[in-house]
Structures are given as structure tokens and as C-alpha cells.
């Protein structure tokens, strides 16, 4: 990896291009007066964080068995750089990798990590969660969430964490592009529901796909994450408000 230090404006531009991380004039974080309980009052554009009825993350404990739209992952090796945006470690992805839900296609823009997990399953919180963020041609989001439990990490996660991780507002380029396929579990059976972005501005009507099968991480990876990003960096679970979770 090659490391570069970015000014805040450069980080902002890069994150806006991915379409998920939003740079705003208001500072926000995960604790104290800038924490999740206060996001809705930090900036008028964050109001949905407090007022929304379709917020994420959620606890998945009441899924309904139903026929889901089939998922087709067509990922290429396109993860070309990792950015530390001050809230998470994010791997930006080159164009050309897609997720198709039924007949609706989204392009993979980036993936990033939260520790501990944001979504929970039957009340269980995992040490790590990855969010694969996709957008369609109209700017609508679909997020695939992968949980990581304690165990022996697969090679894919280790390749993301190779060498020195970028510090705040730094980025590192990968010599060999990361293949997002290597971060997915063998089974792609999922829970699906409508939710929101889990960071400000908490925009709603996001298609959430939480894979049932977990991958694995270890204490070394979590420790390395915590050395460059202040943890925890997870938003607490939000009320379902009569939403249906399908499986």
C-alpha cells in the first residue's frame, strides 16, 4: 500500500463520490454531545436521524418467511484504495461491479466497517460488520451487510487489512485490487428490509440485505482497526416501527 495524507476537502470530495459518507458542516461522532442520540439536532439536514420511521440499524428477531427477489453478485477485483474518513475505514471501488436484486441493478461504490456490529441478529452483536454500499442509476441505495464473528479470518479480510492502515484523513492505495467476493460468506441467504443510512443524514428508503451466514475476524484485526479509528463506531439499533423483515 502507498499512503497519502489528504486535506479534509479532498476527503470530502472522495467520500461524496461514493455516495454514502456525507461531509457536513456539523461534526458528528459516536459519543457525547455529538453522538447518535443528538445527531438529529446537530444540523437541519440530519433531522431524519431523529424523525425517521425507517431507520437503521435494527435487531433482526422477527423475520417472515416469504419469496424474495433473487440476488446476483457480479463483483470484480476493484477495491483500489482505503480511506480513513475519521468515522470508519472505507475501501473505494472502481466501476464495473454490480448487485442485481430481481431485475434491479445497483453498482458497488464502496465498502466500510463498523465495530461492533450495527445490526444485531436475535439480540446478538458481532465484533465486526461490513457494509457493501451500492447505488442504482437514480441514486437509490442498496446495502449488503456481512457480520464477522470470532474465529479464523479468511484471506479476503486479511488482504484488506494488509500493511499499515491509514490514519485519520489519510488514504492508502492497494498494489493489487481487493476482490469483494473474498469478503462474502459462502451462503448468500439473507434477511431483507427497508431502512436508512446508519450515519448522518440517515436518509431512508435504503434496501438492506443482511447475510445470515457470518464470516470471521479476530482480536488482532479489531485491535488494528481501533488503533486508527476511535471505537466503537456503531449506531445503536433503531425501532422497527411495524416494518417487515423477510427471509
UniProtKB/TrEMBL annotation:
The keyword Ion transport does not apply. Its cofactor is Zn(2+). Reversible hydration of carbon dioxide. GO terms for molecular function: carbonate dehydratase activity; zinc ion binding. This is Carbonic anhydrase. SUPFAM superfamilies: Carbonic anhydrase (SSF51069). Residues 1-23 form the signal peptide. Residues 26-247 form the Alpha-carbonic anhydrase domain. Pfam families: Carb_anhydrase. Keywords: Lyase, Metal-binding, Signal, Zinc. Coiled coil: none annotated. It is an enzyme of class 4 (lyase). The keyword Metal-binding applies. It comes from Reinekea marinisedimentorum. Its EC number is 4.2.1.1. It catalyses: hydrogencarbonate + H(+) = CO2 + H2O. It comes from the Bacteria.
Amino acid at each position: 500500500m502507498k499512503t497519502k495524507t489528504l486535506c479534509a476537502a479532498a476527503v470530502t470530495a472522495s467520500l461524496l463520490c461514493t455516495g454514502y459518507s456525507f461531509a457536513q458542516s456539523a461534526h458528528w461522532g459516536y459519543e457525547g454531545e455529538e453522538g447518535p442520540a443528538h445527531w438529529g439536532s446537530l444540523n437541519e439536514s440530519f433531522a431524519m436521524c431523529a424523525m425517521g420511521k425507517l431507520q437503521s440499524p435494527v435487531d433482526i428477531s422477527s423475520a417472515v418467511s416469504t419469496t424474495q427477489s433473487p440476488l446476483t453478485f457480479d463483483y470484480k477485483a476493484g477495491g483500489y484504495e482505503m480511506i480513513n474518513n475519521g468515522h470508519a475505514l472505507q475501501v473505494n471501488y472502481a466501476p464495473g461491479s454490480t448487485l442485481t436484486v430481481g431485475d434491479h441493478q445497483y453498482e458497488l461504490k464502496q465498502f466500510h466497517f463498523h465495530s461492533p456490529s450495527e445490526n444485531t441478529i436475535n439480540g446478538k452483536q458481532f465484533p465486526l460488520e461490513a457494509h457493501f454500499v451500492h447505488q442504482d442509476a437514480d441514486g437509490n441505495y442498496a446495502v449488503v451487510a456481512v457480520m464477522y464473528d470470532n474465529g479464523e479470518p479468511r484471506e479476503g479480510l486479511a488482504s484488506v487489512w494488509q500493511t499499515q492502515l491509514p490514519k485519520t484523513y489519510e488514504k492508502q492505495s492497494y498494489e493489487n485490487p481487493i476482490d469483494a467476493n473474498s469478503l462474502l460468506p459462502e451462503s448468500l441467504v439473507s434477511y431483507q428490509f427497508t431502512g436508512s443510512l446508519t450515519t448522518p443524514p440517515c436518509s431512508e428508503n435504503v434496501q438492506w440485505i443482511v447475510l445470515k451466514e457470518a464470516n470471521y475476524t479476530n482480536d488482532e484485526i479489531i485491535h488494528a482497526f481501533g488503533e486508527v479509528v476511535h471505537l466503537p463506531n456503531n449506531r445503536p439499533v433503531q425501532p422497527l416501527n411495524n416494518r417487515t423483515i423477510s427471509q
